[in-house]
Specification:
Length: about 240
């Protein structure tokens, strides 16, 4: 019969193996999820490039417009909501802890959910009645740039820290939350000023918006691909550990 010590050893090794297998499965899923999210980010970049081109042809002038104002705004607002949801899942399926990305994870979660909620409200407004709610929806969207820029700068800061330091899970890294908010507020304020003050404010604000969101999608693409590579690297480490 097997001794009690041997039984305990076998149980311990079996438990460790089970934990490793679960972790490997989780990392495979995170790798695939982040690859899909990166693909969605590139789709959003393409949407903004198309919207930038459409905006060149004044949509309020039927003689030169290439589509109707309703279709243009539906594409603009619902694509933004779609991308904000992508950003939410990018944080959710990151293989690193949220505390490693920012010192204020609760604040970041609040910003992300406000970002999704505000973009959904704006998209609903233009879908219900573009003529009556266009101005209000744009005010919400351009104010929403505040939260988008804050998230982007947080993700970008995380990428820079990962490349400049050997950041491990569980290590809290200081972030520039105050500076991020100031820069983000400047971007949002610029769009609001252009939209509300200039004679052709909407078209010019759209140029700023699509440029900013194209760059925002690029940051999310880099973040999600970096997450994929990190998950793959951790998976290889576990596979080598199992072989040993």
């Amino acid at each position: 019969m097997m001794s009690e010590d041997l039984i305990q050893k076998v149980r311990k090794e079996s438990l460790q193996l089970a934990v490793i297998l679960v972790e490997m499965s989780s990392l495979r899923f995170q790798s695939t999820a982040n690859f899909v999210l990166a693909l969605f980010a590139t789709v959003y970049m393409s949407v903004n490039a198309v919207c930038f081109a459409i905006n060149y042809f004044d949509i309020d002038n039927p003689d030169v417009a290439v589509t109707s104002p309703l279709i243009f705004h539906l594409l603009e607002f619902w694509a933004t909501l779609f991308f904000n949801v992508v950003g939410l899942f990018a944080l959710l399926y990151s293989p690193i802890k949220l505390e490693t990305i920012t010192e204020r994870p609760t604040l970041l979660k609040l910003i992300v959910f406000l970002n999704v909620a505000s973009s959904f409200i704006a998209a609903l407004l233009v879908s219900i009645n573009l003529e009556k709610f266009e101005i209000a929806a744009h005010e919400i969207e351009y104010a929403n740039e505040l939260t988008m820029a804050t998230i982007d700068l947080t993700l970008l800061g995380s990428l820079f820290r990962r490349r400049s330091q050997c950041v491990e899970d569980g290590i809290r890294v200081p972030d520039g939350t105050v500076g991020s908010v100031v820069i983000a507020a400047a971007i949002a304020l610029l769009q609001l000023i252009v939209y509300n003050s200039l004679e052709d404010g909407e078209q010019l604000a759209h140029y700023l918006e699509f440029t900013f969101e194209f760059l925002s999608a690029g940051i999310t693409f880099l973040f999600t691909m970096d997450n994929k590579f990190l998950a793959d690297a951790k998976l290889r480490e576990l596979q080598l550990a199992c072989m040993d």
